Structures are given as structure tokens and as C-alpha cells.
Amino acid sequence: MAIRPPLQKVLSPCILEVERKFHSLAARHLTQNGGIPPFQSLRSLPLQTIRDTYYDKSNLLSSSGAWIRRRNGIWEAKIRKGGDFTNSRFEELNRVSDIAACVENITGIQAHEKEDFGLGIMADFVTTRETWIADEEFRIVRDNMDFGHEVGEVELQRVLDGEASEEEKMGEMERMDERIGEFMRRYGWAFRKGRPVGKLTAYFEMMGQKRS
User: Fold this and answer.
1) Which CATH number fits domain 14-211: 2.40.320.10, 3.40.120.10, 3.30.1330.10, 3.30.1490.120?
2) Of 26, 27, 140, 173, whose CA is between 20 and 30 Å from 107?
3) Which superkingdom (predicted)?
4) Are 154 and 183 in contact (CB under 8 A)?
């Protein structure tokens, strides 16, 4: 009887996302020729309505830099790989098995997605999102939440091979962050000055005010 070789584990592609938040856009309608220099190209994407439900367990995930959410019914995880609340670097997980493994690694909980991975809801809100693709690759988004907060982001995303090392991931995200910084300085006319406040931070501040 022939001996079959052991099955090799198929590694998920590594999805990296780097983003820089901004307070708001300088104009209500973003246009290609709204300032000098103009964008090389700019196209608008359809308006989105996004329902985000975030989950945690005694703040174990968020304090470890992991955010588990169900976006329009689809599970996602974002693992912080550096930066801060304004300039953020994440690795994204989209496979349920990878998300379950992440939750178990941080909390010790073994649970199925149908059990919400053993987690509880910590935030739930709806976002109306406007999106533009500038210079063919930079994603500019303006988010308006149903609790009255607005914030924007400039994002870049890269997909690496699943076998990419942590050093390779960190190096690529460093380059992505530098490119976003250069982009925002070049087109500074598009972004209004001011301290941006992330949607979760604003949500928790709002909930705290309601309880007081």
C-alpha cells in the first residue's frame, strides 16, 4: 500500500493595511482639480452603508491590539502591527478559522463563529461611507457614523504571500506608511487641519456621556 505524503497546511495570504486618519475633507465634494497640484487621477466609488458590530471579552482583545468585528454580517479581524490611533498598521484576517485561532490565542476561548467566538458585543453602529481612489491606488474615505461623528482615512493595502516573515511585513508597512505621508503632504489642500478622532474612540466617548 502506497504511503501518502502528509498534507501541507495551506497558508492564507497576508493582507496588510496601513491608514492615516484625518479630521475631515477641506471641501464637501472631493474633485480631481480641487487644488494645486491636482490629483493625477480620481474616481468615486458607490456610496456604502456599513453595519459594524465589534466583539471582545473583558477588553482582552482590544488591549492586545486585536479588533474582531462583523461587518455587514461577515467576520473580520484586524491585528495591530504598529503605529498609533492616527497612523495605524494592521494585518487583516478574513478566514473564520484564522479569526478563531486569533481569539483562542489571546483569550484562551475555543468557540465557533455561531457562538460569536465566545465573545460579547462592545460596539454597534452604522456608517455611511464615501470613497475615492486617487492616483490609482490611494483610497480616501470619509465616514459619517449614525451617532453623529465624522472621520476620514487615507489607506493603502498590500497582499503578501502567506509565508512572509514578520520582518518582511513590518518593512512593507513602513514603506506604505511613508508613501501615505508623502501623498497627504503633496495634496495637503484636500485635508482640513485638526485632530482626528477614530470611530471607536468617539463611540465610547458618546456612550460614556450617555451614562453620565
Assistant:
1) 2.40.320.10
2) 173
3) Eukaryota
4) yes
Quick one: cell of 60? 482582552
Q: First vs last Cα of the chain: how many Å apart? A: 72
Q: Are 87 and 174 in contact (CB under 8 A)?
A: no
Q: What pLDDT, on a 0 to 100 scale, did the predictor assign at position 1?
A: 46
pTM above 0.90, yes or no: no
Query: Quick check: 87 and 156 in contact, CB under 8 A?
Result: no
1-15, 130-144, 148-162: least confident range: 1-15
User: What value does the mean pLDDT take over residues 37-46?
Assistant: 98
Rg (CA), the chain: 19
The residue type found at 37 is: P
Q: Beta strands of the chain (E only): which ranges?
A: 14-22, 24-25, 42-56, 66-71, 74-83, 87-93, 120-134, 138-145, 150-160, 191-192
pLDDT digits (tens, 9 = 90+) for 104-124: 999 999 999 999 999 999 999
DSSP state of 170: H
pLDDT at residue 7, rounded to an integer: 43
Residue 82 clears pLDDT 80, i.e. is over it:
yes
User: No. of H helices and E strands in the chain?
Assistant: 4, 10
Per the structure block, which three cell numbers stand in for 178? Answer: 511613508
Q: Which three cell numbers stand for residue 97?
A: 478559522
Read off the C-alpha cell for 209.
456621556
